[in-house]
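Hi C.,

You asked whether I'd gotten around to modeling the 358-residue construct. I have! Everything is below, sequence then structure, no commentary in between.
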Amino acid sequence: MVKIDNHIRNTVLLAMLVVVSLIISVDLLFALAEEIADTDENYSLINALSFIGLTLPTSIYELLPFIALGGALIGLGILASNNELIVLQAAGVSVWRIVWSVLKPTMLIMLLSLLLGEFIAPPLEQLAQSNKAVQLSGNDSIASEQGTWRKVGNEYIHINAIAPGGELLYGVTRYEVGSNRSIVSSSFAEFATYIAIEDSSYWQLSNVRQSRFGPSAITASEYLQEDWHIDLSPELLSVLLVEPDRQSISGLYRFAQFFDAQGLDSATYFLAFWKKLLQPLATLALVILAISFVFGPLRESTMGFRVFVALGIGLVFTIIQRLMEPASLLYGFSPLLAVLMPISICGLLGLFLMRRVR
């Protein structure tokens, strides 16, 4: 059985390697075209290539479930085309024993998914996005098309760019809102530096221009420096420029809790948290579905048709995901349910088809 396991594992892993090479090559071409469109005097081609290199682990991570799906479908399809599956079954090897041999390399993909999604891809993505935002901002004090808006307490904050690490901010605009929802003051600081003190850390704003709106007059002031006490740590700020789907699992959970504490809607972050946490389970469900197809309706199919089916399964799975995610935000049902539904559909369908295999 060890030799059989090794043979099936090597075939499936080789198929996965071919699939990842093809998919990532196409993804890199599209990414390169997109980044070249953003180049200017501040954001050069070298910067664009560096950005693509730093975000490559994120691209691989997002595609891992479909890589496992394609690898299992094509790898087992090769064995079926060579009649090796029939020989194994004739020799007394059960279908479920063959399935277990395929699931072993799948578990390596699931482990890789967790490692990439938690420890490797998110910090590199944060570094890439921070560098790009700083480079695109150039020498401008603020660029409205860059950066991010956040509401913290009674302030609406726009940060043009966040340096890697989150301890240096570029172009900080603040709007303070009063109890009657009118703007009390607005201010702009060219830079903000995090001052770490054991008991009371704060942000030090530099080159501040402030306007206060009174009942009958507007008062303008300028300061070289101003202390800004706010509950935003560099760890939280360092992920502001990164989309929720591209943050770490632990970071998403902390950020969702922060939003809850601020009385803001945290559903988007909890949705991304459950999606990333359960991605290994999604990989497993897709592989089980692929295996059931090889033992069932695709046993005698050509390789081209198997590739077409793999693309179709991946497309349908993605469509269901894309429909359930905004639906959970719109109608307010559990993000966990929205993530589990497409996974459950794939897994249950795969198990149902496998039970029909004779």
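If it helps when you're writing up: The chain has a mean pLDDT of 85.

Thanks,
B.
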